[in-house]
Amino acid sequence: MTFICYPKCTTCQRAQAWLDARGAKYRVRNIKTENPTYEELEGWHTKSGLPLGKFFNTSGLVYKSLHLKNELPSMSTEEQLRLLAKDGMLVKRPLLIAEAFVLVGFKETDWAESIAFNAQLK
Fold first, then answer.
1. Are 7 and 33 in contact (CB under 8 A)?
2. Cα dihedral 41, 46, 51, 53 in deg (nearest 10)
3. Which residues have CB under 8 Å from 118's CB, separation 6+?
4. Exposed end of the chain (fewer CB within 10 Å): N or C?
């Protein structure tokens, strides 16, 4: 699994501590220094089954400064993906990427279910 986070984010810190407490094996990727590519975001969006809007960090300063709350509804999927690929701080975090799932944001119950399911596949 790949754990994509911003190290200064307290939610990311909680999620990482949660993974560590369960002995999960994962690779850490800093979203600010290694921004997701357009292709990665496109694949994760498809695999997740979530609306693309769920990939935006709506509480972030960049999101607010660009007035994306009003802009996103009129943007195409391609435009939204290109925007996310330009700045990792626009992407909601943490992300947990595995062969069988993509999790956006930290919800303990969702993570527990997905990791348990992923372990059954091995």
1. no
2. 10
3. 1, 98, 99, 100, 101
4. C
For residue range 40-95, what is the model confidence (pLDDT) as tens digits? 999 999 999 999 999 999 999 999 999 999 999 999 999 999 999 999 999 999 99
Q: Which helix (H) or strand (E) holds 104?
A: strand 102-104
Q: Cα angle at 107 between 47 and 85, to 5 degrees?
A: 45
Number of other residues whose CB lies within 10 A of the CB of residue 13: 15
Using CA atoms, how far apart are residues 52 and 41, in angstroms rounded to an integer?
A: 9
- The helix/strand/coil state of 70 is helix
Q: Between the CA of residue 56 and those of 14, 21, 24, 79, 86, what are the distances in Å?
A: 20, 28, 26, 13, 12
DSSP label at residue 91 = B
Q: Phi-psi bin for 109: left (phi > 0), alpha (psi -120 to 50), beta?
A: alpha
pTM: 0.91
Distance of CA 120 to the CA centre of its chain: 23
